[in-house]
Amino acid sequence: MAATDGSPNLMAEIAAIAQQAQSDQTTSSTLEAATVDILSLFTVRMQHHFARGPFFKELRKRLVAGGEADLADRAYQYYLAGNVLKHGSGSSYHELRAMSGLRFTVKQPDGSGVVKPEGLIDVNAAGFFDGLVGTLEQAQVFLETA
């Protein structure tokens, strides 16, 4: 289904970021930055669907209300992963660790006493970017056709 709200190229842009990030010589930090960029781009382009409030929390509510609980869970998990990649082992990290049925691996801090965001989400795992992009594409279709 085509996007209708002035964002017809959103998923093409997101797919291009994901594809570029997954090139053969990509580092984990590049993949992590691309994940954050993809989530930020999606938020900026889709925010107009909500009057106010935190985008992914509002998206989650709307998806659940629309009968898309699985999609709501997936989108929210990727949102939390993005927060972990930006901020480290704060509340989003602890919320992810408490969840079951995660679509990706959440790692333990390295034990050095210094908690950095890098490496807490396994963005190198097979299917991570396909899952992220697919989830956002489904959420976009839901928002723009609801």
Layout of helices and strands, plus pairs?
Elements: H1 10-21, H2 28-46, H3 55-65, H4 69-87, H5 91-98, H6 128-145
Helix pairs in contact: 1-2, 1-6, 2-4, 2-6, 3-4, 4-5, 4-6
Span between termini: 12 Å
Rg over C-alpha atoms, rounded to the nearest angstrom: 15 Å
**Total strand count, please?**
0
Q: Give me the secondary-structure category.
A: mainly alpha
Which H/E pattern describes the elements? HHHHHH
Tell me the helix content: 55-70%
What fraction strand?
under 5%
Largest sheet: none
- Unreliable spans: none
Shape: globular
Q: Tally the helices: what do you get?
A: 6
Mean pLDDT: 85
Notes on the structure:
The structure is a single chain. With 146 residues, the protein is mainly alpha-helical. The chain contains six helices and no strands. Helix 1 runs antiparallel to helix 2 and helix 1 (10-21) runs antiparallel to helix 6 (128-145). The radius of gyration is 15 Å and the shape is globular.
